[in-house]
Write a sequence for this structure.
C-alpha cells in the first residue's frame, strides 16, 4: 500500500517537473520540427501573398459598413447609460459627462458642436440606416438579417469592472431595440490589456474600455495610419480599430507636432470631424472623479485636470486638530518615484518633494517651477538648424534616429521630407527651466546645481529601473545651474508641452546630491542600479516639499511632519497621516471619523450611505468630470 | 518513534519541493504576469520601445527559462558559469532568451497566434554573472519584491504583517476553542433540549453567514450607528488609530496604546470567532454524539462512574480525535491570515498581503507566502499525527 503511494507521488512529481519544463522544450528543441512540418506550409502561403495572410486585411463583414457603425451610434442612449452607472446625478450633471468625440467639451482642443457629427439618440434614424445597409427585420423578432439570412450579431468584450457590468446590459438592450444582437463577454483585465492578448492583438469585434485622460489630448498613437497594430509591424501602435483615414492621420500628426496651442486647434478639429464622421470608436462618457472629505477640512479642493489633489496641501487644515488623515487603498511600493508611478505613490511623494507645477483645469500653474518656459516668455527658443548625415534627430514617428538617406523628418517649415544626403534645416528647441531660488532641502541645505544634475544623471540611466526613457532620448544636451537647467532638444523634437519642467513625474526635479548614506557614501556617488534598493531613497527620502516623511509602518500608515524649510511657508497643519485601508472598509473609516480624505482611486461610485451622510452634512462629496473616457471601439477588419 | 519522525521529515521535504514546483509553475504559466499593461503605457511621452521591453523582461528574469528561474529562486543558483578544476564549465550554455523570434501563425479558428519559434539573442550561463539574485528560498532568502515593495526585501513585507496576523488569528483561534468545545459538548449531552435547538440554529446561522456580510454588519451595528447616535462605539477598522479619538463613557483614547489596540481588535476577532465557533462546536457535537452511543460509554456509566467523568474522560477524548485534524490545520492560517476578514476591517495582515501580491503579479511575495504555508501545512500534519498518539493510546507509530 505504502509503495503504491510512493509510486504515485513520484509520478506526480515527475509530471509536474515535466509540465514546468514544457515551454522551454518547445522553444529550443521542437523549433526545427515545427518549422519543417506545419509552419513551412504556411510560410509558403505567406510568400505568395504576404499581406493577405498575416495582416488584418479582410474587412469585417458587418463593421466595415459605415452605415452600421453610425446606426449603432444613433441607437445608443448615452444619457441612459450614464444614469445607470451614476444613478445619483441630475440630468444636467449627466449631460456634462457625455462624450461626442475624443476630447471633452470643456477642453481647449474641442472642435465645437457645429464642427463634428453628433449622434443624438434617434433609434428610427439608426433603423433606417440599417435597412439601407441591407440588414432588415421582416419577422420583427428584433434580430436583423442580411440578404443571405445571416443575423446581425456582434460580440462586445469588456472587463469585469463594476461600471462595465452595469453598462454592458444597458447598451445590449439599446442595441436589441434596433435589431442588433450583442453578445456580452466579460474578460479579465489581464487578458484584455495584456502584453500579447486582447487589445494588443486586436482580438475583438467590439470592445468597451477607457483611455486615461491626459492634460494634453495627444492622440498620435491612437488615430494615425502607421499606428495600426498588425503582425507585420510587431503589433506597434494603439489604433486597434484599424482606422486609416489619411486626412485624419496627417492632421493628428500635425496636431501633436506643433508647439503653439492656437495652431493645434485646426488640425485637432479636422481629426475630430473625420473621427466622428467615420464612427470607428463610439465615445460614451467621461468617468466621474469622486472625492469625499471630512466637512471640517478646509482648503481641500480637487479640480478637473489635476489628478494630484495635494497640489495645495500646505493650505489644508481642520480647525482644532493638528493631524489630517488621508485614506489610501493602495500603499506606495516605494518613495522612489522613478520606479513607482502609481497615482497614490505620487501623491505621497508630492508631500515630500512638492510638485513642479499644477494643471488645475488643464492649465499650467507654477509651484516649484517659477513660470512656464514658453517661446513668448523668452525662456525658450525654436531655431532653424542645419542637420547633416550622421546627426541624431527625431524622425516623423517621434523616434531618435541617426540621419541618413531615406529617413523621414519634418523640415523647418513643418513638411515631411525624406533625407537624401544634402543637409537640411530642421527646428531645434532650446528651453531654460527656472525654479524658485529659495528651495531648501528639509535638512537645511539649499538646492544647488549638483542636485539638478543628479536628477538628469539618474533618471536617464538605463540601470535606474525606470520604464521609459523617451524624455531623456529627446535631449541633445543640458546644462544645470543653481536655479534650474537649460535643455537643448534633438532637432525635430516639437513637444507641445515643452514649457513644463520635463522630469516625469512632475515632482521637484532635484535629488539631494549632498545626502550622506548610512554606509558613509554621498548619494551623488551611488550608481543608479542601487537607487531603488536604498532606504534613503525608497523609504525615507528628503525633499523640498511641504512635509517630511517621519515614519512608515508598512501596511498601516505613513506619517508626515511639516517641513520647517518649505519655500511656500509653514504648512497650516502639523501632521499628515496616510492611513492604508481597504476599499471595503474605506467608507466606514470616513463615516467613523478615522480618515478625513478619500480620493478617486478609492471611490468609484457613491453609495446610498455616502449620499445620505453628505445630505446630512457629515461628509463633503466632490464629483468632477475626469479625463478618463469610456468608449466602444469597432474593429474594421478580421484577423 | 524516532525512526518514524525521521522518515516523515524526509517525506515532508519531498512534499514541500513538489508543491513549490507546482505553485511556481502555475503562477508563471498562468496568463497575465508582471508585464501586463505595459503596452498600454505607450501614449504620449511614455512610449515604450522594444529595447525597454527587453530590459524590463530581464528585470523580472522573464528572459530566463522557467527551470533556471525556479532554481535561482529556490537555491540562488546558477549565478554564472561553473568553475571547477581551473576551467569554466557550461559558460556558453544558453539559459534563456533575450530576444525571442516570434512567428505569427493562423490557427484552426482563423485567429493569429504569436508563437516563439526561436531565439535571436540567447542569454548564456556566463551572462548570469553579476545579475542580482537571492540566496534562495531554501536558505531563508525570499528575494526582493517586484511590485508591492519595489526592489526591497520580501522578508521586510512579511515581518511587517506577520505579528498582526498572529495577533488576530491566534486570539480568535483560542477564543473559538474555549467557546466551541464546551458549547459542542453541552449541546451533545443535552441533545434535543431547548438549549440544543437554539444553539444548533444559531450555529447554522453562524456558519452559513458569509464573513464579508457579517463583518460589514458588525461595523454598522457596533461602529457607525452607535457613533452617530452618540453612544460608545468601536473603531470601524485598521489595527490602531493614527490620532486620538473620544468615545462616550470611555473618554479620549490615545493612538497606539493598549486600549486603542484592544478596541481595534474586538470586531475582527469576534467576526472570525463566531464563524469558527459555529462550525467547530457543531463538529464536536456530532462527534460527541457518535461516541456517546458507543458500548464502552454505556459500560462506563454501568460501572457507576460519575457522569462528568464519563463525558470528559471517556467520551471527549475519543471525540476529539477527528477534531484535532481540523484544529491543527488552522496552524497554517496563523501565517496565511484571513483574507476576507482582514480586507473588511483594513487589518494589515498576511491575508491582505497575499491578495495584493496576486493582484499585482508580485510573484516573489506570493511565492514566499505559498512556500511558507506549504511548510507549515506539512508540519501541521506531523503535529496532528503526533497528537493522535497522545489522545489515543491505541495509536502507535513504528
Amino acid at each position: 500500500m505504502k509503495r503504491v503511494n510512493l509510486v504515485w507521488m513520484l509520478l506526480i512529481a515527475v509530471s509536474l517537473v515535466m509540465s514546468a519544463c514544457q515551454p522551454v522544450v518547445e522553444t529550443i528543441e521542437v523549433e526545427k520540427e515545427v518549422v519543417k512540418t506545419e509552419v513551412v506550409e504556411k510560410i509558403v502561403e505567406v510568400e505568395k501573398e504576404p499581406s493577405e495572410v498575416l495582416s488584418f486585411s479582410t474587412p469585417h463583414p458587418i463593421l466595415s459598413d459605415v452605415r452600421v457603425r453610425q446606426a449603432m451610434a444613433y441607437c445608443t442612449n448615452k444619457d441612459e447609460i450614464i444614469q445607470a452607472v451614476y444613478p445619483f446625478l441630475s440630468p444636467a450633471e449627466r449631460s456634462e459627462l457625455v462624450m461626442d468625440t475624443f476630447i471633452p467639451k470643456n477642453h481647449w482642443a474641442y472642435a465645437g458642436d457645429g464642427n463634428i457629427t453628433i449622434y443624438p439618440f434617434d433609434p428610427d434614424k439608426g433603423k433606417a440606416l440599417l435597412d439601407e445597409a441591407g440588414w432588415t427585420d421582416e419577422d420583427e423578432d428584433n434580430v436583423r438579417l442580411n440578404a443571405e439570412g445571416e443575423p446581425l450579431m456582434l460580440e462586445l468584450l469588456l472587463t469585469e469592472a463594476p461600471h462595465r457590468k452595469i453598462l454592458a446590459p444597458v447598451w445590449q438592450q439599446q442595441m436589441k431595440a434596433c435589431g442588433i444582437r450583442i453578445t456580452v463577454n466579460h474578460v479579465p483585465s489581464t487578458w484584455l490589456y495584456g502584453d500579447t492578448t486582447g487589445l494588443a492583438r486586436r482580438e475583438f469585434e467590439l470592445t468597451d474600455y477607457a483611455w486615461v485622460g491626459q492634460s494634453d489630448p495627444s492622440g498620435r498613437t491612437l488615430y494615425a495610419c502607421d499606428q495600426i497594430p498588425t503582425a507585420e509591424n510587431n503589433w506597434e501602435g494603439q489604433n486597434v480599430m484599424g482606422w486609416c483615414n489619411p486626412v485624419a492621420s496627417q492632421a493628428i500628426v500635425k496636431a501633436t507636432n506643433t508647439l503653439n496651442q492656437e495652431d493645434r486647434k485646426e488640425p485637432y478639429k479636422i481629426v475630430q470631424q473625420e473621427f466622428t464622421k467615420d464612427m470607428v470608436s463610439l465615445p460614451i462618457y467621461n468617468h466621474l472623479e469622486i472625492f469625499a472629505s471630512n466637512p471640517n477640512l478646509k482648503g481641500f479642493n480637487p479640480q478637473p485636470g489635476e489628478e494630484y489633489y495635494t497640489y495645495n496641501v500646505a493650505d489644508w487644515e481642520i480647525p482644532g486638530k493638528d493631524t489630517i488623515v488621508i485614506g489610501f487603498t493602495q500603499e506606495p511600493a516605494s518613495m522612489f518615484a522613478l520606479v513607482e508611478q502609481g497615482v497614490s505613490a505620487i501623491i505621497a511623494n508630492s508631500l515630500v518633494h512638492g510638485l513642479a507645477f499644477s494643471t488645475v483645469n488643464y492649465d499650467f500653474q507654477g509651484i516649484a517651477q517659477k513660470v512656464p518656459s514658453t517661446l513668448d516668455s523668452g525662456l525658450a527658443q525654436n531655431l532653424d538648424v542645419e542637420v547633416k548625415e550622421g546627426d541624431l534627430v527625431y524622425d516623423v514617428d517621434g523616434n531618435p534616429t541617426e540621419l541618413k538617406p531615406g529617413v523621414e523628418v519634418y523640415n523647418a517649415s513643418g513638411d515631411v521630407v525624406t533625407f537624401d544626403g544634402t543637409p537640411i534645416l530642421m527646428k531645434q528647441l532650446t528651453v531654460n527651466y527656472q525654479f524658485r531660488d529659495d528651495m531648501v532641502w528639509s535638512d537645511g541645505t539649499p538646492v544647488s546645481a549638483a542636485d539638478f544634475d543628479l536628477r538628469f544623471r539618474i533618471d536617464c540611466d538605463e540601470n535606474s529601473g525606470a520604464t521609459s526613457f523617451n524624455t531623456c532620448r529627446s535631449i541633445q544636451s543640458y546644462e544645470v545651474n543653481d536655479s534650474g537647467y537649460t535643455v537643448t532638444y534633438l532637432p525635430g523634437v516639437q513637444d507641445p508641452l515643452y514649457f513644463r519642467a520635463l522630469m516625469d513625474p512632475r515632482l521637484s526635479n532635484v535629488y539631494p546630491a549632498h545626502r550622506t548614506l548610512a554606509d558613509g557614501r554621498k548619494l551623488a556617488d551611488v550608481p543608479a542600479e542601487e537607487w531603488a534598493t536604498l532606504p534613503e531613497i525608497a523609504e525615507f527620502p528628503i525633499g523640498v516639499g511641504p512635509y517630511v516623511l517621519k515614519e512608515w509602518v508598512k501596511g498601516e500608515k505613513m506619517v508626515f511632519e511639516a517641513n520647517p524649510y518649505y519655500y511656500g511657508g509653514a504648512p497650516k497643519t502639523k501632521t499628515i497621516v496616510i492611513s492604508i485601508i481597504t476599499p471595503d472598509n474605506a467608507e466606514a473609516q470616513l463615516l467613523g471619523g478615522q480618515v478625513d480624505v478619500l480620493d478617486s482611486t478609492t471611490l468609484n461610485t457613491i453609495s446610498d450611505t455616502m449620499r445620505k451622510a453628505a445630505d446630512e452634512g457629515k461628509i463633503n462629496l466632490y464629483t468632477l468630470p475626469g479625463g478618463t473616457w469610456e468608449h466602444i471601439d469597432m474593429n474594421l477588419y478580421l484577423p | 518513534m524516532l525512526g518514524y519522525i525521521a522518515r516523515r521529515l524526509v517525506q515532508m521535504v519531498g512534499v514541500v519541493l513538489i508543491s513549490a514546483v507546482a505553485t511556481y509553475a502555475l503562477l508563471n504559466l498562468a496568463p497575465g504576469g508582471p508585464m501586463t499593461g505595459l503596452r498600454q503605457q505607450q501614449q504620449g511621452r511614455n512610449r515604450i520601445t522594444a529595447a525597454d521591453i527587453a530590459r524590463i523582461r530581464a528585470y523580472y528574469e522573464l528572459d530566463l527559462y522557467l527551470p533556471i528561474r525556479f532554481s535561482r529562486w529556490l537555491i540562488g543558483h546558477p549565478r554564472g558559469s561553473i568553475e571547477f578544476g581551473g576551467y569554466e564549465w557550461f559558460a556558453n550554455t544558453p539559459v534563456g532568451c533575450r530576444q525571442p523570434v516570434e512567428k505569427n501563425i493562423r490557427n484552426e479558428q482563423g485567429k493569429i497566434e504569436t508563437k516563439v519559434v526561436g531565439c535571436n539573442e540567447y542569454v548564456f550561463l556566463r551572462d548570469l554573472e553579476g545579475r542580482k539574485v537571492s540566496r534562495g528560498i531554501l536558505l531563508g532568502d525570499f528575494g526582493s519584491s517586484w511590485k508591492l515593495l519595489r526592489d526591497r526585501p520580501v522578508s521586510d513585507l512579511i515581518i511587517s504583517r506577520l505579528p498582526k496576523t498572529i495577533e488576530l488569528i491566534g486570539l480568535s483561534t483560542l477564543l473559538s476553542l474555549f467557546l466551541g468545545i464546551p458549547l459542542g459538548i453541552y449541546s451533545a449531552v443535552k441533545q434535543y433540549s431547548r438549549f440544543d435547538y437554539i444553539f444548533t440554529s444559531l450555529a447554522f446561522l453562524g456558519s452559513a453567514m458569509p464573513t464579508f456580510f457579517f463583518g460589514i454588519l458588525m461595523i454598522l451595528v457596533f461602529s457607525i450607528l452607535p457613533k452617530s447616535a452618540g453612544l460608545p462605539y468601536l473603531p470601524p477598522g485598521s489595527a490602531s488609530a493614527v490620532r486620538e479619538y473620544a468615545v462616550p463613557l470611555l473618554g479620549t483614547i490615545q493612538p497606539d496604546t493598549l486600549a486603542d489596540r484592544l478596541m481595534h481588535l474586538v470586531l475582527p476577532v469576534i467576526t472570525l470567532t463566531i464563524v469558527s465557533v459555529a462550525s467547530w462546536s457543531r463538529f464536536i457535537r456530532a462527534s460527541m454524539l457518535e461516541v456517546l452511543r458507543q458500548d464502552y460509554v454505556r459500560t462506563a456509566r454501568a460501572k457507576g462512574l460519575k457522569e462528568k467523568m464519563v463525558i470528559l474522560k471517556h467520551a471527549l477524548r475519543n471525540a476529539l480525535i477527528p477534531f484535532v485534524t481540523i484544529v491543527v490545520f488552522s496552524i497554517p492560517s496563523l501565517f496565511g491570515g484571513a483574507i476576507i476578514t482582514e480586507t473588511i476591517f483594513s487589518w494589515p495582515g498576511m491575508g491582505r498581503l497575499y491578495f495584493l501580491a496576486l493582484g499585482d503579479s508580485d510573484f516573489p511575495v506570493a511565492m514566499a507566502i505559498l512556500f511558507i504555508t506549504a511548510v507549515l501545512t506539512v508540519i501541521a500534519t506531523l503535529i496532528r499525527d503526533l497528537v493522535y498518539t497522545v489522545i489515543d493510546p491505541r495509536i502507535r507509530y513504528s
